């Protein structure tokens, strides 16, 4: 045990004896009983919290509860009335005290539960193992070190990455080191005060994210720890390993190989932003290894900064997130803008657009997915194959355009539930993506979305196009000419009560629309019971002539999400584009009327 943890134990072992912390607010009946239970739970939590910051925060909240502060009671209910669910995305939430927040108690319970799961499923006589990584968010390094110590204390071989690194490094390390599991401490592109805990499995899962039933089994082990032991009683050990720098070098080498070097390249002016995350140090090394020149940098966003001071939300999809990138691009006359999200597992691309007030247009995730999918299909067709054809895959809410590419090249095509935990498991996969800026271009190396390897693939494509006097925008037009023009749009209905989403879904099922915006609905697929090789999910898929509508509740936010897709292969490219724009407008108007 380190001296730091001895000090933290001393702080956390001090019982709460402040009279205001125990005194309950004046109330009646059931509410008093509820608040009393919450206070008891909070005091028990407080007395096992090894973090001086959240310990003090909760102590002060209990004082306010005891002083009849109604806002404090509401806050206490939010923190202790439920628990962050451990699911197929692991854990994710705001950093604060309580079981419905991210903190060292919750992480300690998660680490112990995951260790118990790994020990239980290990073959007799073998020692399970885990690799642990972390990004630059608040407390990421602390949560990672806690995990390493608790894993080692439980008898699991634990390997901690040498410093803060992108999420794809953990997905890579699970396969490269042959370990049983991987943990990445990150909240990706969530708001600044959030953090999270992402889990991968090795062995037969080949480094993919967890899926059922493993997520439920891990959750059960975590709950068992939470209800039977204080985190201060969990055995810890500093006998964990630090991964060698050569692991990072092997990732750099494997990712640089994505560029291939099959054709002539022409130099481009490129702007890059790390969005205050951890992408730059790694992607710079990959660019060097792949033979690409260094890009112009958005300097205020290039170093890791947990406060994310220049963006409201550190997500390249959010309005305004790329403003500084566009400013820098105008300064240097950039041909291309490349952006990673804070943990570098996503990629955003922008291209010059004279019609835009910014002078640049961010491509949609579907547009980038089309281009990279076409690139992968051409490479697969050129290399040939024996046996089953390679596969392209995307989530069910992504554009049908990838299916058109697969058919044209004789490849298999798969649609999966949302999330790379599903996309990455497609047999024979050579490329997969989801519309939320996630791309898997090298499944033989990383079984998860990877914004760094995707950037290298896109740069390879762009520089090859430049060698023939063409641009990414030209390539999109070529796509429309060959496969048809595909367009997409989204409607997000944010609600205050989740029951509102349930009512909309029930209404659509009970009284399905015969048309949307005047376009006849040809067929409706209710995926509540699965179908077409997709596991059961609360999704409605509506088929129309030249269009599709997907309706589903968000898995991470109180939103109803509606995905609109339309396509046309009639007329010239401008005529196809105009037809799709009109279709999307009609679909959006019709769906807004339906859910209002």
Description:
The chain is α/β, with parallel strands linked by helices. It has four domains: 1-81, no CATH class; 84-243, 3-Layer(aba) Sandwich (Alpha-D-Glucose-1,6-Bisphosphate, Chain A, domain 3); 255-482, Alpha-D-Glucose-1,6-Bisphosphate, subunit A, domain 3 (Alpha-D-Glucose-1,6-Bisphosphate, Chain A, domain 3), CATH 3.40.120; 484-595, TATA-Binding Protein (2-Layer Sandwich), CATH 3.30.310.50. 41% of the residues lie in helices and 19% in strands. The chain contains 19 helices and 22 strands. The strands form four sheets. Strands 1, 2, 3, 4, 5, 6 and 7 form a seven-stranded mixed sheet that branches. A six-stranded antiparallel sheet has the order 17-22-21-20-19-18. Strand 2 (129-134), helix 7 (140-154) and strand 3 form a beta-alpha-beta unit. The N and C termini lie far apart (58 Å). The model is unreliable at 1-24 (pLDDT under 50).
Distance between the termini: 58 Å
Q: Please report the total strand number as a whole number.
A: 22
Strand content: 15-25%
- What is the CATH T-level topology of the largest domain? Alpha-D-Glucose-1,6-Bisphosphate, Chain A, domain 3
Structural class: alpha/beta
Outline the biggest β-sheet: 7 strands, mixed
CATH homologous superfamily name of the largest domain? Alpha-D-Glucose-1,6-Bisphosphate, subunit A, domain 3
Low confidence ranges: 1-24
Our count of helices gives 19
CATH architecture type of the largest domain? 3-Layer(aba) Sandwich
Please give the share of residues in helix: 40-55%
Outline type: globular
- What oligomeric state is this? single chain
Number of domains: 4
Radius of gyration: 25 Å
Mean pLDDT: 93
CATH class of the largest domain: Alpha Beta
């Amino acid at each position: 045990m380190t001296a730091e943890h001895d000090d933290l134990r001393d702080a956390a072992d001090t019982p709460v004896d402040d009279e205001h912390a125990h005194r309950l607010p004046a109330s009646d009946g059931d509410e008093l009983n509820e608040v009393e239970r919450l206070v008891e739970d909070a005091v028990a939590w407080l007395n096992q919290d090894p973090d001086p910051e959240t310990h003090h925060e909760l102590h002060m909240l209990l004082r306010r509860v005891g002083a009849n502060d109604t806002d404090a009671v509401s806050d206490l209910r939010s923190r202790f009335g439920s628990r962050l669910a451990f699911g197929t995305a692991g854990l994710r939430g705001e950093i604060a005290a309580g079981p419905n927040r991210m903190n060292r108690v919750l992480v300690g319970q998660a680490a112990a539960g995951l260790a118990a799961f790994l020990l239980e499923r290990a073959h007799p006589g073998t020692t399970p193992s885990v690799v642990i990584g972390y990004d630059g968010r608040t407390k990421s390094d602390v949560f990672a070190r806690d995990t390493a110590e608790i894993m080692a204390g439980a008898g699991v071989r634990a390997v901690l990455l040498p410093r803060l690194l992108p999420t794809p490094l953990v997905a890579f390390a699970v396969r490269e080191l042959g370990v049983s599991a991987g943990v990445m401490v990150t909240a990706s592109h969530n708001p600044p005060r959030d953090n999270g805990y992402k889990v991968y499995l090795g062995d037969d899962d080949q480094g993919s994210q967890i899926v059922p039933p493993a997520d439920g089994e891990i959750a059960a082990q975590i709950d068992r720890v939470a209800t039977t032991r204080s985190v201060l009683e969990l055995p810890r050990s500093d006998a964990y390993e630090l991964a060698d720098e050569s692991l990072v070098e092997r990732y750099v080498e494997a990712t640089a190989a994505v560029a291939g070097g099959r054709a002539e390249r022409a130099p481009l002016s490129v702007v890059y932003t790390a969005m205050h995350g951890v992408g730059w140090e790694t992607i710079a090394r990959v660019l060097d290894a792949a033979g690409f020149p260094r890009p112009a940098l958005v300097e205020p966003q290039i170093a890791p900064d947990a406060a994310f001071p220049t963006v409201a939300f550190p997500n390249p999809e959010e309005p305004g997130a790329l403003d500084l990138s566009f400013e820098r691009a105008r300064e240097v006359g950039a041909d291309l803008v490349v952006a990673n999200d804070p943990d570098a597992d996503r990629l955003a691309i922008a291209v010059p657009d004279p019609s835009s007030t910014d002078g640049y247009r961010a491509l949609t995730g579907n547009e980038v997915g089309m281009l990279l999918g076409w690139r992968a299909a051409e490479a697969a067709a050129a290399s040939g194959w024996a046996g089953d054809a390679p596969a392209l895959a995307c989530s069910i809410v992504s554009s049908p355009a990838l299916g058109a590419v697969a058919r044209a090249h004789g490849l298999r095509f798969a649609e999966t539930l949302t999330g790379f935990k599903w996309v990455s498991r497609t047999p024979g996969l050579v490329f997969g993506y989801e519309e939320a800026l996630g791309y898997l271009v090298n499944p033989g190396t990383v079984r998860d979305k990877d914004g760094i390897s995707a950037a290298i693939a896109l740069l390879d494509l762009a520089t090859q196009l430049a060698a023939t006097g063409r641009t990414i925008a030209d390539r999109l037009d070529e796509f429309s000419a060959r496969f048809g023009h595909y367009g997409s749009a989204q409607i997000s209905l944010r609600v205050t009560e989740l029951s509102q989403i349930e009512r909309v879904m029930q209404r659509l099922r009970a009284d399905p629309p015969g048309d949307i915006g005047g376009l006849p609905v040809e067929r409706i697929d209710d995926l509540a019971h699965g179908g077409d090789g997709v596991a059961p999910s609360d999704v409605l898929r509506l088929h129309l002539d030249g269009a599709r509508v997907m309706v589903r509740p968000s898995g991470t936010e109180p939103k109803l999400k509606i995905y609109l897709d339309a396509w046309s292969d009639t007329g010239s490219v401008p005529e196809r584009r105009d037809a799709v724009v009109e279709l999307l407008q009609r679909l959006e108007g019709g769906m807004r009327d339906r859910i209002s």
